[in-house]
Amino acid sequence: MTTSPANRIITAIIFVSMAASAFLFWLLYWHKASPQFAQSLLFLPALNAVFNGLSATALCVGLFFILRGNWKAHRTAMVTAFIFSSLFLFSYILHHALHGDTRFAGTGGIRIFYLLLLASHVILSVVALPLILTTFFFALSARFTSHKRLARWTFPLWLYVSVTGVIVYSLLSFYTVPSSELPPKSPPAVEALR
Questions:
Q1: Is 50 exposed, middle or buried (0-12, 13-18, 19+ CB in 10 A)?
Q2: Interval 152-163 mean pLDDT
Q3: Rg of the chain over CA atoms, in angstroms?
Q4: Is residue 11 classed exposed, middle or buried when 0-12, 13-18 and 19+ CB atoms within 10 A define those classes?
Q5: What pLDDT score does 177 carry?
Q6: Do 135 and 141 touch, CB atoms closer than 8 A?
Q7: Are the beta carbons of 85 and 108 closer than 8 angstroms?
Q8: pTM above the 0.70 mark?
């Protein structure tokens, strides 16, 4: 039995998404940032929040246009959202490669809220990546019925991840532990218990 080119592309999207997620997991929990870069590019977290906010805005603009039947403007807005999300991902990787992880210093109810928000953000971002790429593939290959059907799931997930990215940044900015006071990193399951 042979597989269609579309199925091979979707399979490749899934494998690339899994590899990207594994790389980010390694970067966050096992990569040791060099102290020599501790003061380099300190603006990156704020820039990441800007990219997430711009992506969310472009997504809403894209929805506005497609609901009015303006598919050309919709396409432009969605490509813009994709570009902003891609710039976010590059900047996010660069930040964590240079600086490592940032620990949340809030306690009590705000810590519980933050950890639940962060968990939903991370889990849904892992789910959203292959959906975003597959939705784009369907649009670029003129499979508009499949595109529309999948976009109904992709849009809210992508928007949620973009908006919660800004909220996570805002909370981290307010409740930050200076890196000089951080204990050694633990695997994620142990970290969640702190």
A1: middle
A2: 97
A3: 18
A4: exposed
A5: 61
A6: no
A7: no
A8: yes
For residue 146, what are its two tokens?
A: 């499949």
78-82 contacts, C-beta under 8 A, 24 or more apart: 78/136, 78/139, 80/54, 81/55, 81/56, 81/158, 82/132, 82/136
Contacts of 4 (CB under 8 A, 6+ apart): none
Q: Is residue 165 within 8 Å of 121, Cβ to Cβ?
A: yes
The answer, yes or no, to whether residue 194 has pLDDT greater than 50, is no
Q: Could you count the other beta carbons within 10 Å of the beta carbon of residue 167?
A: 16
- Would you say 106 and 45 are in contact if contact means Cβ atoms under 8 Å apart? no
Residue 25's pLDDT band (cuts 50, 70, 90): confident
Residue that has been written with the tokens 């892992």 in this structure:
126
Residue 136 has a pLDDT of 94
CA separation for the pair 139, 19 (Å, rounded):
24
Q: Determine the straight-line distance between the first and last CA of the chain, rounded to whole angstroms.
A: 51
- Residue 104 pairs in a beta bridge with 176
Residue 104, classed as helix, strand or coil, is strand
